[in-house]
Amino acid sequence: MHPPIFLWAAGLALAGSNTACLPDAVDELDRKQLVNLVAGESYSIGLWRNGDYPAARLAARVVQIIIQERIGYKVDLKGPGALTIDGFFALMGCSQPLNGTDRGCGPSVTRVHINVEVWTEGYAEAWAQVQADYPNKAPKNLGNMGYSGASAAYVPLAVQEKAYDVESINLDFYRDYNGSRQNPGAYFAHPLDLDLSKLLPCADTALMSNELMSGYLNLTGDSAGVVVDNVGLVTGKCFDGFFWYGPACRDNPSTCLTWFTGGTGWGMGEILLKAAVYNIPLATAVASSWGNYVNLPAESNVMLYWWVPDSTFLRLQPRRITFPEHDLDAWAQGDRRSAAKDLSVDKHVSRDLSDLAPEVEEFMNRFHVSLKAVNEMMLNQMDTNDDDFDVACRWILSNEDRWTAWIPEKGKCFSQFGMYSENDKNFLQSRQAISITCRACPSGSYSAQLEDSQGITHVCQECPSGSFQVSGASVSCDLCPAGSYQNETGSLGCNRCPAGQYQNEEGQHGCKQCPAGATTLLLGSNSISDCGCKAGSINIASGEALECIPCGDGLDCPFSSSIQTLQTGLPSSGEQLVTRIQSGYFATISDPLKVFRCRPSTWCIGGTPGTCAGGLQGEPCAFCPDGKSWTGNECTDCGAAALGWAVAVVAGLAGSGGAYFFVNAPVTAQARPFKTGQMAVGLAVNALQSLALLGLMSAKWPATFEQTSSSLQIFVLDMDSLSLSCFVGGTSSISYVATAFVCPVLLSWVGLCYALSQLSCFRKCKSQPWKWPFALNTMGLGLQLGFGTIAAVSLKPMMCYKHPNGRYSVLSYPTIFCGEDGHGLLLAFGIGLLTLFVLGFLVVCSYAVWNLPRWSVEGKHGKVQSFRFCTSNFRLDSYGFIIPLLCRGLGFAVSIVVGTNLPPVQTGLVSIVLVAYTVVQASLRPWKAPAINLADTVLSASLLILASRSLQEDGDMEAKLGEHFTVIILMLLLACLASLAVLCIVGVIVQLVGGNWNRILALGSGSQDPAKISEALKQCAHALLEIENAYLREKIASINSYDVIAILNFINVIGADFQDENRTALAPALNFSQGSGIVGSRVRMVTINARLSTSAGAVDPSSSIAAQEPQPQPEPPTPGNDDLPALSEAQEPPKHNNQGIASNDPTAESPDVAQGDPGDAKSKIVSTVF
């Protein structure tokens, strides 16, 4: 219990008992009591006061005076209760309403009947529980008593007006506290200017609450504003011992304004979140006592935590700071960035009051006092220091027109009220009803005067469309402001115009539509100027007009984009709404909507029209100004680049001429280390060419692959990054022509060197003249090595990609537009290069592959030698593999041409080319060295994975995964080439020291002792001869088909390669293999040579057998015999000049095949082919 409170209340009642307020007050002796016929007793009306604070006391006094002195009932003040919930139980008749553990509720008579200043919504769960548990005794809520209660952040009126006068800042609106645009702290006291002795240290405030600060951290992510200890507890970070600084002023506390509160931090959780979310430069301060909380705001300008109704800071005339409308769901989740909900301040009556004193309940129904009136009474009390009775009395006497309408009178209703039928429970529009009372007009209606034969009264009418009334007891409706509308009657508010509409007039029932293609950024637009083109479209009209068209590819068009914002680069509305050209695209200043796509994309950085990366020029960005060259990041002065290119040209010519002496070295059946190294170099070049060609595809690759492919463009003769423009000039046409002439010039140079070597002046210098077949072989090997590059260069003019503006550019030369000026020259050179050096070379190689066996048999060694590049790298039974190899390079280039604007087509065609090549290569294993076969398979498989569309970035795959996987594949390629290089180097070293190099290059196979193999082979032959034919046939018929093929291949080898000088011992095996239908390349070559040889009459058919490749796994050479061809143990390498191939001197003569011993002819044919 609270003796001091009850003594005060008793004294207050005594003080007012002998004094009347109204001059015509009902005499105290004439005042009635409630008569409870059921209980058989009478008693005064009990009026409960909700707490000992001015608003509750004054409201209760007003109700008490009017009921006593005008309606005529005795009223006793009860309570006060410490909490609103206490009043619930008091009105139910509970004997101990203040006892939280046992309220004493039972079948008793209630002595409390009225409760005002009730914050029902603050105790919604308890109210619902009371209604459910005591349906017959629970109090009745007569609704709002005229105002709502709220706790929020407030700014003193003087501070608000000063900020508005100086900078037109509305400090009663949260957005004007944004520290990035305003400096609101200039109008408030700095936290360190406060008397720190009046403040609580951080350690004693709610900043130390783990629950509060954890929620703050989760919602804002502001880790700099909290401290997390080693067990995970989160507390607020304390600055200067007393304050928490918001993110907006944490780096510069001098800009902080002070938010001031009491207790241990009332409202702390809400204001911290708002400060972080809305960028408010705020420092929190907590008063160390109630007295300091009350007095400090009078000394310093601070933002207040306050609530209404309350008199504490009423003299400061605080203005509530408006935040976004309360979000009920967000607050339920702890997210308090929206405004706190206003709580209805209600009036409650007991369940039996309507029976005991219906006119009193009707009075309470009509009782409706505004917050302004309550504030007036509280200010009056502060000014006069009078007691509650005197203050309430003065208000009653000066506002008779207000409260007289609360008094029930049949049919007579004053302004703000309307006639109401208690029987029908609705508002009346005439006096025809029998029982009429007056009630305050509800929200959405207004009180209209009605004059009839009985006089003047008021009725409640709904607000018409285009208007609203949020407050009850109103005499008029407010027109919907501009930017809003209301198409229904009786509305409490207006609807904001939806996006795409605006309303520039008040009181409208609809909104106006923005022009076609335009919309508004926000709801509630009040001017046509708020309309702008929708995101993804742009306004091409000038002035105030709007004409929106789609932006298309290459443009970022946010809301309200226009030609003007695109050209200036200024935001169209907010800071983030900037109309710009996307990175990788370009547009001219004069025609900014005609967008070009840049290749590569890094040359165009986007932004405003006319912007290129690193000083590039062109339409689109593609070349450097004269005297400068592109270095990968910017255009720089050429310097000595021209001289460097001159040296490179000389070095290239010297290298192509010197290649004659390296590529015409003797050929053996085995791929010796040096030869394997040559094949490895060729394989590496082909792989790098393929990577460069993949980079020309239109698909979007991960960044790592784009960078890798860009650095390899030299392999498709794209030499702009090597300052080619400094040597040949800056125009794209000249660059392409120079590139196209590389192949013809190098081939012509080799031919010129041959011609010069025939001159007598060179013979006098003891220089051996070049041989024309060797020169042709050198040219052919160069064409073979660079075939993919030449194919790509020849097809570049046909690789046309499409710009968003509809024009087409040459992929490698974007400033040359397909079908326009300059393109014809590129096409002429490209078609010429394609016809002569790509398709022509492919046709010639195909012709040579078809005729090589016949030329070999007929002894046309010059022709065979001229095309030795076709066979020197491959096993002779797969010498035609050069055709698939060439077709792969051509297929890559053709795939890019066909699908330049269709990435899926490109990747599909490239995948087909790689799959076909890999199948053929894996089936034939054509390379002489097993290591090269394995490496070729691995490289082809890796390229196939790279070419797959799944690795390219798209909406179905995260960029990081594609990036990492690409790095793995590129590393696999590099590892494969590096391993191959190591094998070749180790092989050369082993060969130099006389070791068994073949074991290394054959990857461990074919390194068995030939003597042991020979002995085992003869033992097997003797064993077979002893087996009965019938049993042998039965066993062969029962074995696996692949084992049968292995046996037949063995017979092929025996029949083709293991013949003695008499050529008769193995004739049956050879005849069987030829007649058995076995598709073995060795036998097929023997048959072809025999047939062509017979028809030509040049050489005995049997002599051509030895012209084929020796056994696939020859015996390792013995130390010192590196020149031994792997034909047989007995055969020595020919030291005579059989077309010079078996000789160590590439300049030796090449006489025709001598007639005579077939063995000699066989040796010559073998030497010629190898």
UniProtKB/TrEMBL annotation:
Q: Which CDD domains match?
A: TNFRSF
Q: What segments bear the compositional bias annotation Polar residues?
A: 1136-1147
The top of its lineage is: Eukaryota, Sar, Alveolata, Dinophyceae, Suessiales
Ranges for domain Tyrosine-protein kinase ephrin type A/B receptor-like: 483-531
Xref: Pfam families: Ephrin_rec_like, OpuAC
What range(s) does the ABC-type glycine betaine transport system substrate-binding domain occupy?
Answer: 299-396
Protein's recorded name? Tyrosine-protein kinase ephrin type A/B receptor-like domain-containing protein
For region Disordered, the annotated ranges are 1098-1170
Q: Name one GO cellular component term.
A: ATP-binding cassette (ABC) transporter complex
